[in-house]
Amino acid sequence: MPSRRLQETSLRYFLEVARTGSLTEAAARLNVSISAVSRQVATLEALLEVPLFERRPRGMVPSAAGELLAAHALRGALEAERVLSDIQALQGPLSGRVRIACSSGFANEFLPRTIAAFRAQYPGVRFRLDATGPTQVSDAVLLGEADIGLTYSRAAVRGIRVEHRQPASVFAIMRPDHPLAKSRSVTLAQMHPFPIALGSPENTVRQLFDVGCSNRGLVFEPVLVSNRFEALANFVLHGGGLAITGEITVRDRLQRGELHAAEVREPGMRGRSVELQTLADRTLPEVVRTFLAFLREQLPEPGARAAATKAPASKKANARKAA
Q1: Are residues 58 and 204 in the same domain?
Q2: 64-89 and 8-20 are packed helices; what angle lies between their axes, rounded to 10 degrees?
Q3: Using one digit for the tens of pLDDT, what is the confidence trace for 131-157?
Q4: Which domain holds residue 257?
Q5: Beta-carbon neighbour count of residue 302 at 10 Å?
Q6: What residues does 276 pair with on adjacent strands?
Q7: Mind listing the pLDDT tens digit for each residue in 218-260?
Q8: Domain-embedded: residue 86
């Protein structure tokens, strides 16, 4: 079968079904009818003489052949986006779009502040920021829905290139007038007498906390459980007790003096890392490379950097040298 018969429209429709697992959702995202999407997928299956999807009650899952074709289609689509973006960059000041998927804690203050600082130098750059769970961040990068993933990770993910990794300790946060606020580090036993708010069980910091409690034989009865960090932080700010989190999530609030953070001094509490993720073997557009270099510089704690913030102009030059 001549490869030129793999038409762009068919591949685009097919890739959207592979991404969403649904003809209905793919049609909605493409702004076409369901029958049009179904027809294009059927055309490809007839052309290749293999089924591209397994039809299941909960959706459509790519077959082995479908996975191969999806990888081909994704590489083609991302390469086309890169070429168009880099052509735009030749026309004048850096411009284009950067799509970021992140764990929810990074979206509260850290990333909005970083994006604003970057745009002060490059006002022509636009951003899309989607906050989700750690696993969904990597999935968004793998599916080409995000250029950059920023997440907490406990294990390597196939197909992901880690652009930057740093250890992520677990911190107990509290008001500055809390009895434990004089300490730079605390143990679980010291935390146990106080009311505590915890994230939901799928949260990575909650998972490390639960393992640590099990190892110590301690049982915490949280007075509040929420999948929204803002709810936990406001609970602490209003004098409700303690909560746990990573340093980057509350960095701005610590610098403003609103909260105090004490590292939880227990074995295994450094069992996760902050990762900057991109798709393996993908050539990134210049605008993404430039922002990625700037973002990488912002992640270490302020005391670990030569300066709290650096002008992104130098990052553009460095990114071009690395390209």
Answers
A1: no
A2: 110
A3: 988 888 998 898 888 999 999 887 788
A4: 171-264
A5: 12
A6: 150, 164
A7: 999 999 999 899 999 999 999 999 999 999 999 999 999 999 9
A8: no
